[in-house]
Structures are given as structure tokens and as C-alpha cells.
Design a protein that fits this description.
With 270 residues, this protein is mainly beta. Helix content is 13%, strand content 48%.
């Protein structure tokens, strides 16, 4: 029996009906997403001028408000932004007759550093189809589930084994980086060797074809060590704890690499 679950979405206007069939229920960074687009012509012959698919995610940008309060404390607002992760366009227009059915099998890459959909992190696929008889395109948005690849999954497993639990995950803006955003994972020790010593540990990851890079920030007190976001600290070079793991590393070796780094570099360091 196949473990793949197809996600079906149907959308239409007065001239065509379209079905978007996503072949996978769960996506993984670095892998492909396979989509089948089915278009059914209705009453009149149509020219389909374009089919466009975009894979999106959202992140938050933190901005100062224009006015400070009476005590000269700066106020911040969070602005939701969207980012295009992957894009596909049909290379040619085509005609579709009344009652005719056209199928398109599409493959799109899910890039490295596509956010993992934990907490309120959202990744979605938007499909737009433009026809000659309609001013506006017909479109559909489908929320998707993204899970960590094998390397990241092993790192999460190691942290969980040490009594660290994910409390919060979010994507936030960053300047001067390869990507306009980073995904931050906030862990708290609920048991194990770090319980009572750390308030929390925050981790940023960035994956390339050859390496997975991790940045760490340890908070030992009941209040935050810095008022700056973790993305801001990274962009100005103030995150001093970082670990680089080759993507060629055997998964079984990742556990020792991560634990050795934490215990030799982060454990009880000030």
C-alpha cells in the first residue's frame, strides 16, 4: 500500500474547471513536490495563457514604530511577509475546447531551508491559471506540511534525548544573509543535565548542499540576555557559538558531534 497521500483541490470559473493534485502529504527540504494539474474546458474554446505555481512561506519583520512612548521606550510592530521559495511557469499558451481535458505533471523542488511547519509556521502552494475570456485568473492556495530532513531530524532527536523540548518556532527577518529570513527554534530544558542551568537555548540553522550550519544562543537567567532578535544578532556577528556539520556525515555520528559540541563549548559557559 502506498504511503503517499494525494491532496486534491478544485477551483473554477465560468469557462474552465481545474484540479490540483499534490502527490505527497508531507514534504521534505531538498526533495521534490509532484503536482498534477487537470484542466477541463466548459462551454467555449479557451486560450490558457499561463499556468503558474509558487511555493510560499511566511515570516515576520520587526519594525520600530515612528513614535516612542512617554518613557522613551521604543515600540515595535510585527509585519507578516511572504517569500517565494520555488516557482514554476508553463512555457507556452494552449487552446482547450469545450469538454476537452488537459493534464500537466509538474515537479518543483522544495529548497533547503524551507521552514519546518511547527507552531504557526506556514508553507503553502499557490496555483494560478490565466484564461483569455476572464480578466482575473483563477487561483487556489493549499497549506502544506514540511518535516525536517534526516540530518535535522537526528539533531532534534539528540536534543530531545537530553530533556530539551521545543517551546516556540518562528521565522523572522534578517539582513545581509543569503535568505531574507531565518527559522528560529527555541528549546527549554524540562529534565536532564541542563535543567536548572539553562532557561532556554535558541538555535538557528542554515543548510547548503555541503554543510548544515547551526548557531546557538544560551539564556541562563529568567530574562532575555538581549533585546535584539536572534536574526539581528546573527546579522551583526554577535552569535559566537556555531557548529558546522558536513552533509556527508553518517547520521549515526551526528549524535556524538552535537553532544560533544554542547558539552565542551556551551555547557556552563558564560
Amino acid at each position: 500500500m502506498s504511503f503517499l497521500k494525494k491532496i486534491l483541490a478544485s477551483f473554477e470559473n465560468s469557462f474552465i474547471t481545474a484540479n490540483s493534485i499534490i502527490q505527497q502529504a508531507v514534504l521534505f527540504p531538498g526533495k521534490d513536490i509532484n503536482i498534477k494539474i487537470n484542466i477541463h474546458g466548459k462551454h467555449k474554446k479557451q486560450i490558457i495563457s499561463n499556468i503558474n505555481l509558487k511555493l510560499y512561506c511566511h515570516y515576520f519583520e520587526k519594525k520600530h514604530t515612528q513614535k516612542d512612548n512617554f518613557f522613551y521606550k521604543k515600540h515595535f510592530i510585527k509585519i507578516s511577509r511572504s517569500h517565494t521559495l520555488s516557482n514554476w511557469n508553463l512555457a507556452f499558451p494552449f487552446n482547450i475546447k469545450s469538454g476537452e481535458i488537459r493534464d500537466f505533471n509538474i515537479s518543483m523542488n522544495v529548497p533547503w531551508n524551507t521552514p519546518i511547519t511547527i507552531n504557526n509556521t506556514k508553507v503553502w502552494l499557490e496555483t494560478k491559471i490565466h484564461t483569455s475570456m476572464s480578466i482575473n485568473s483563477i487561483s487556489n492556495k493549499e497549506l502544506l506540511t514540511v518535516r525536517p530532513d534526516a540530518l535535522m531530524d537526528q539533531i532534534f532527536t539528540v536534543l530531545e534525548e537530553q530533556g530539551l523540548r521545543i517551546r516556540h518556532v518562528k521565522c523572522e527577518t534578517i539582513e545581509g544573509f543569503i535568505s531574507p529570513f531565518i527559522q528560529k527554534f527555541e528549546f527549554v530544558p524540562t529534565m536532564g543535565p541542563y535543567h536548572g542551568y539553562w532557561r532556554e537555548i535558541e538555535i538557528i540553522t542554515h543548510r547548503s548542499n555541503n554543510f548544515l550550519k547551526l548557531w546557538f544562543e544560551i539564556n541562563r537567567n529568567q530574562t532575555k540576555n538581549s533585546k535584539e532578535t536572534l536574526g539581528k544578532l546573527l546579522s551583526i556577528g554577535k552569535l559566537k557559538y556555531q557548529l558546522e556539520i558536513s552533509t556527508e556525515t553518517c547520521i549515526q555520528e551526528v549524535r556524538n558531534i552535537v553532544l560533544n559540541y554542547i558539552n565542551s563549548t556551551l555547557w556552563r559557559k558564560k
